[in-house]
Amino acid sequence: MPPKQQVMSRTLFDEIILPVYAPAQFIPVKGEGSRVWDQQGKEYIDFAGGIAVNALGHCHPKLVAALQAQSTQLWHTSNGFTNEPALSLASRLVNNTFAERVFFANSGAEANEAAFKLARHYAVKTFSPYKTKIIAFYQGFHGRTLFTVSVGGQAKYSDGFGPKPADIVHVPFNDLNAVKAVIDDHTCAVVLEPIQGEGGLTAATKPFLSGLRQLCDQCNALLIFDEVQCGMGRTGSLFSYMDYNVTPDILTSAKALGGGFPISAMLTTHKIAKVMSAGCHGTTYGGNPLACAVANAAFDIINTPEVLSGVADRSTRFLQQLEKINQQYGVFTTYRGKGLLLGAELAPAYQGQAADFVQLAAEFGVLILNAGHNVLRFAPSLIIGENEIEQGMLRLMQAVSHFVKR
């Protein structure tokens, strides 16, 4: 007799997947644009964007075509060879940013791991074996490897895994005096997200970033921008450092870079990159032809005046609709973030219940995120339609109404 077919249910997840996630009770099976459907055929408006990954929505035709075309040519070669899609994507990144060198990996954590290793290696090779201090910020998030989670400023993600990498100092975000108190000649890098993603959508101020640039220059330390979540058009510029007119020494990108296909990149200059040599860092899958082909297509769409300028208009529509909900129900106190990486902080009566809001919103057919316990997060497609915004916000209003009443 043939084996019994396994039912792909949410219950099966609890039985066979490592219990490090708590996914929704429904299972999405199809996505198109800014809409998603589950196994039962229920439709959802997507304001979550796969945590800012699906910058062009689900199954964008040009991304699908790029993947299909590349899938018939070359899938994987390893780092023993280069390939044309990788060279093409690297050229796009170099030609449109401060960068002169690119390293490809597969996730934001890997790109940040490479950035932190590069910063220390550069300092050790160029200045002193004792120049290893990394200054980072409370509520920051840089990935889940032991190094990146230790640099991240949220102990809940790093505690319980044994000794952490040493010489990492955390200070309050947007507090230049706190940085001044700890930066010295032993500092190799200052690391931050220009807009803290998981930490509550707090945006850096311009004086803060300008001050960090000056401090790093004075101490021969590198300034690293983690733009995994806030980059690739999310703020209305290709990368958010362009909004601040402050240029980092190293920048990391992932999430929207592949429009849904796993890929990441670390960007830097010739001066810094030259300390690296063959074999001192690497990755088997980094620069994969499939990933780079999709990322090339995503880049060509995102890096256009039409898409980038449209972010501001969509952001305004989101904020207007959120305020409309707030005027009726009084659930928010402030709005955070920039562009289409937005946060709505819950009023005191609803503090600690952001995850409950997320779950209830899904029941009413709209997908949103939380950023901590007190902030609702919105990271929709950069090209989401006006109709989807209005429909999604109507569903969110219904969810809020239900939540307040209960």
UniProtKB/TrEMBL annotation:
Cellular component, GO, one term: cytoplasm
KW Transferase (keyword) present: yes
Entry protein name: Acetylornithine aminotransferase
Residues bearing the modification N6-(pyridoxal phosphate)lysine: K255
Complex formation: Homodimer.
Location in or out of the cell: Cytoplasm
Family: Belongs to the class-III pyridoxal-phosphate-dependent aminotransferase family. ArgD subfamily.
Binding of pyridoxal 5'-phosphate, residues: G108, A109, F141, D226, E227, V228, Q229, T284
EC number(s) from the headed UniProt entry: 2.6.1.11
Pathway annotation from the record: Amino-acid biosynthesis; L-arginine biosynthesis; N(2)-acetyl-L-ornithine from L-glutamate: step 4/4
GO biological process: L-arginine biosynthetic process; lysine biosynthetic process
